[in-house]
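Usage

Read records sequentially. Each one opens with the input sequence:
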Amino acid sequence: MRLQLFKPIDNAPLIIFRIFFGLLLALESFGAIATGWVKRVFIDPEFTFSHIGLEWLQPLPGAGMYYYYALMGVLGIGIMLGFKYRFSIIAFTILWSGVYFMQKSSYNNHYYLLLLVSLIMIVLPANQYASLDARNNPDLKRLSMPQWCSWVMIAQVAIMYFFATVAKFYPGWLDGSFPKLLFISSPFKILEPILSHTIFHLFIAYSGILFDLLIIPLFLYRKTRTVAFFAALFFHIFNAVFLQIGIFPFFALSFIVFCYPPDFIRKIFFKAKPRLESFEISYATKPLLIWFFIPYFIIQLALPVRHWFIPHDVLWTEEGHRLSWRMMLRSRHAVTDFRIMDRTTNTQIPYNYKDRLTHKQKYFVAANPDGIWQMTQIIKNEFAKNNQEVDIYVDSKVSINGGPYYLFIDPTVNFTTAKWNYFGHDDWILVPNLYK
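and closes with the structure output:
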């Protein structure tokens, strides 16, 4: 096993992945500007809901976020071309971390995956071939890499797919009720008789489980690799067309290069690249593997299981939902209001929080416990600035996957003193029996 980890293999998979990755980063960044996403998420809002504890992390004023995203796009091109690669990937990772932690109202799991892969790419030798860096500095040029460089990428996507599989084993997915909601407003009206059929919803549910569970093993076994390739191509293109989830389908497809023999990838993408002849084992990268990747993957295995150690169902409480690969899994709708009581007169103060929020922010605040808690802190600070003492109570009902509405927040809890539990259950979240 030790010899296999450090065995030199052709670095073609990592090199072509760097090119794909940089291109996708540039498209994500420039596309966010062109489609108006940056404006809707960072410029139009009065404030953003950062991750709790990072409330100071707010968008740049004025048109600053346009320049921010343009810079990320330029860095993506630098990564693709292998130009000042180490600087480009580190700078992009820092900037993307800012974007990721800066707001939660417009959230997608591929934002998290981009962050993780960017972090991995910082330490991989991805600029040692077919790069401007190697062209400008021939001493940098290499034809090989240790085999673990491919294995860490495979491990990352395997973790993602495995926990995505586990998360689907709940009644709302297994009975097809959530897959039904995914296609209820499809723009492809001609396909409505198929997309609205129960059999189709069940097919989506169980084929999704089988795909997530088997796709990596099928890719790693030589005899099923071709089947896996066409299955992945169909699955991700289908999702790109019908679910419109940005670059994620193409990003997921780019990892395929690590599942094929490196020499096969070389022949397809780098026909002029010399065939690797030297197979001398080197343990120079062993410290990196031990001190970076072992702790990294321990964390990656721990984060998705943390919600199993928090009381009650994560589907309802949302506690432990993020960073757990619970992807496109449920629909939440809520009716939430805040009661602001003047502490001196004990009278209710009219307050419409929705006037201060964008459409997506309204949804985030209404349906998510961290959104509710953060909104109460914003309201508390707003009244405190005016030297007005208030008590804040929340009336909230939530529906999962179009089901009945249940009381979500304890209406007797005063949120001016309620705390946020970073690692456990918040007692002010009421927990019904969703499946009775």
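Summary fields computed downstream for this record:
- The chain has a mean pLDDT of 94.
- The chain is about 50% helix and 5% strand.
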